[in-house]
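Project channel, design review

CF: Before we commit to the Sporomusa malonica constructs, I'd like one complete example in the thread so the newer folks can see what an input/output pair looks like. Taking Phosphoserine aminotransferase.
RD: sounds good, go ahead.
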Amino acid sequence: KNFKKVYNFNAGPAALPLAALQKAQAEFLDFNGTGMSIMELSHRSKEYEAVHNQAIELLKDLMAIPAGYDVLFLQGGASLQFAMTPMNFLPAGKKAGYAMTGVWSEKAYAEAEKLGEVFVAASAKAGNYCSIPAVEELQYDEAAAYLHITSNNTIFGTQWQNFPETGSVPLIADMSSDILSKPFDVSKFALIYAGAQKNLGPSGVTVVIIRRDFMEQANKQVPTMLRYGTYAKDNSLYNTPPTFSIYMVKLILEWVKAQGGVAAIHKRNQEKAALIYQAIDSSEGFYVGHAEPEARSLMNVTFRLANEGLEKKFLDQAKKEGFVGLPGHRLVGGCRASTYNAVPYESCQALQELMLAFHKENA
Ligand code: PLP
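CF: and here is what came back for Phosphoserine aminotransferase:
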């Protein structure tokens, strides 16, 4: 009752699991019998610390994070990570490689370029970022400070299907838009970062997963709040963390676990995205996908209407029928359906139906 049902396809902040929001609502004013909201608790209280530690443990468990890695909670978004990674791990005399697969890779590269020497290890720019370079195409040598990739390209709707084996070269990934969407081997990575506001929770917290021996090699001259070691040493409680955001992350991780974990979530993500890709592929060119089929993202489905004159009509009709967030990013135009973990299967079914019906009426 009083609940307006919408199909939320926002790119981030994005849909969150209803069950997690309801849990938060139920204990909003009185957390765990404290007589206070979670937001009103001291970050040094045992009640808050339990939430904080549960969030860390749940993430370690769900992602099968090996021993020797730390999970950290930072602020500043993924955008601050674009600068923090080179500040800490790009010493003078070394070069860092970047795989360019979209706007966010470009931003990461631009920040690193301000701080040290960088090179392009591969680029999909020539094809307007509709593809992902084959891992064999990546060019870097053993002397590289690190290799940086963007695992999912939120704006263009492409996703790495398999990750490179970089041997002794540390692999760093921006996983903001696909963390926790599928199982993968964390041990391939020296550092993973993700703004929370797609698959993990609300905005305000950035999750970092970092290999401890890599962290120990960081530049010691970096200011306190920009050093990973500061967060690791005090369990991300060196200063006041974004307590409410971390609490929401915990609720969302509990929801993921209740769904059967990351493997089960992945299976559902495949089914959800397939509904929309099927509508594109069966339309005989009425809808045109942006990503090459082998680079397609399970998280952001990007497409246009071949008849561009119909695009506004399609988006207007979608809006009328309760679809939110479907217009593409201003840099690519067209349409984008973000199908993150919490987007229900039913929303994707409804979008498929809309696409099929609109095609029929406007062919
Ligand atoms: N990286 C990726 C892949 C993103 O999708 C985004 C935001 O959408 C960002 C980085 C920037 O994240 P933030 O707004 O948390 O700085």
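RD: helpful, thanks. The mean pLDDT is 97.
CF: Residues 12, 77-79, 104, 150, 154, 174, 176-177, 195 surround pyridoxal-5'-phosphate (CB under 6 Å).
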